[in-house]
User: Fold these one by one.
Assistant:
Number 1:
Amino acid sequence: MTEQHWIPANFQSSELVAVLQEKYNSINFPLDTPAEAKFLKHPPTSLPQTDWSPTDWHTNKKRQEFEHLSSRITGTGLIGADLAAGYIREKYRNNNSIATIKQASYVVLSFLHFLSKTDTTIYKITRQDICAFVEHEQDRGLKANSVISNLRNVYTFLNFLVEQEIQAQAILSKKIHLKLPDSNSFN
């Protein structure tokens, strides 16, 4: 049995389109409301955006994360928490990534907790306090790269405090530098 097609073999596709348009264009669908009829006659130039674009979603997520971290810092009640929240706000305004803002907030919060345990405030920091914080981080079992990264975040926070004229420039004069262990010494 041979297969039969309803379209002749010599029929062109443009002819098919014309036949279908002629056949089905005469069908009218009833409209529910006069507003629908008006919309079809005069559609708006641009339809309202109903879905978030990836950029809007990312910005909203970043804003939520910033607000969460900021409220977490200020909720601790530590001395200097408001300054730390201002520092995180500065990171957000500089359009740093979410990961950078998170890391900075965790390190600054850890630094403020450390200062409160040692009965020091953010207003009375000395170089010895920063050295003690580095030792504290090493005692926690952090790897050398993590300690160096945390130290950089602390110095960035201190630089923010110097710019806000809360700390003296002298705190940044002799920075503490850590060296990574030589990778050949473990072989």
Number 2:
Amino acid sequence: MMRRLLLSFSLVMILAGGPGIPKAGYSAPAGLAAMEAIGPLDGPQAKRPAKQPGDPQGKVRIPVRGDVRPRTGAGPARTTWVRTFSREGTLTLSGVGVIYGFRMAPANDGGFFLLGHTSVSIPASYDSCILKVDPAGSIEWQRVLRQGAGAGNTQFLRSIAATSDGGCIAGGVCDSGVMAMKFEADGDVAWQRSFDREDAREEFADLRQTSDGGYVLLASSGLEDTMGIVNDRDILLVKLDPLGNPAWQRTYGGPFEESAGTLVELSDRGIAVCGRTPAQPDGSGDNLLVLRLTPTGEIVWQTVYQAGDAYATSINVTPAGGLILAGGVYESESQLRSDAWAMKVTAGGAVEWKKTYHGDYRESFHSIIVMLDGGYVAAGSTDSFSPHRGERALLMKLSSNGDIAWQRTYGRDDAQDGYSYGTSVVPAPDGALYVAGTTSFGGMGGVRFLLMKTSTDGLVARLPGFVTDAPLEAQDSAVETLPAALISQDVPVVSSIPALTPLDVSIHGGLLFAAPLNAVVTRTSSRSLALLGRSNVLTWEPNPANDDLEIAKYRIYAVGPIPPSDGDLIVLPDDAFHLYEVDGGVYRFAHSPIEAGGYDYVIWGVGADGGEGLAVRPTQLAARRRP
């Protein structure tokens, strides 16, 4: 089997918008993509994968004693760190499926509940996964669920929040409407319920526990005609008792279509709901909408904020009883460019300030929290400042009036295809910050759940080049407020039990650590008839930033031989792709024998905890001849 490939080399195997679809560059053939666990050779140091169809065994140089150096790993524990979580599977060269990090919620014991979406199939069909981790990011329990017994419903769980009994509540969509799912502290399912209006279609928005031990579920709901077209969409709020039974349910709507965004419970047990409503009488455009409700769902006040084509992704309560909101605003009708924004309003809905945070392409906030100093921290993403237009996780500290105190991005600017983004931020008791999201940095890429613990100012030690300052500009943004005229109505809902299938899937996590240093590859040849042949000798040095870790092994990904080409498009056979391993105390590898043509390599480490380091492509040195 032959494959069409672009000549430019790609470190990352998975696209952000299309898991399992190779990026422009080399990708693993079917044999390597379905690789089983890598087994040892007869020698004690060098390893390579078991033989795959179309991947004939090649010779591997066993390192000599002088190549082996003492391992490290005796340093103090890291106080700031980056962890990634991956699913065992067959989607990438290293045999891991994808996990998109979607939400994080602080648990009562100082740990966290992580919600993600995972797949190992192409085209992707996502299952939902929930992880409970301790404050150090180690997995305590994990659950992977599929809606129904067939193919996964893409990203069916979409929110997670801690509950007062030490468990968590997750919400999302299912075939029978929107749903809520209660987990005990040990991960067992306590109950699951779905909710649906007759002849209507619901879109899930948010779910939180309330101070009375019940829950409130937020969704959009519109009547569906016989052609499957949804009309007259309203905001739907369903109040649940502690066992998930509906206590009351209401819609909030006007002459146009409204959509739900997010919600928060207030100190008086009321509820603040954020959504969108049309900006023009013809129903076009969108304005922000905020409703303040009583504990029983009655409207206290409702306000429309004309702030461009903006959407809210996060809302929280300020110490004075007001609200802080954050999200993104599109700069044009094409929605290709956007700015992040934050807005503070009083308890009565009056705007105190609104600012946008502008780069040269696309920014957005996905989460905002209130800090003890009166300021705020927002997590999101930006792709304005990477040389390769790659998306980067963004963390920004704001003063009490929205000015930027500091701003960081997380990723590697030297990686052409890597990306990351932040979806949630939670403060730690010591003032540090936990950030969750998604990344394709680490090893040979692949989409992984990202969990970081940063310092109070957003820094991470022992990952040189991974954290950079972001030069976004804060700008005051004009907002016009208008009274809204939504009407609240009691509506019936049908409750049922959705069919969910638990999956026996293994998810593992580990520290992300620095790449090896001074990696070079030199082609050698011999004039001796007994040693006739060519080899590429790769050497590298351990990174001092990793001296607190034990590196279990190094992986070398080799592509070649690559024939000369006048254009960008070439064809390589399946057996041009190889994955090798050497012991973590070895810093030299001889790829031999090699054929005429070019070769490309990538080197990265694997930690004793299963975590993978950042990858590096070695520098090609001039050929030399052995005697």
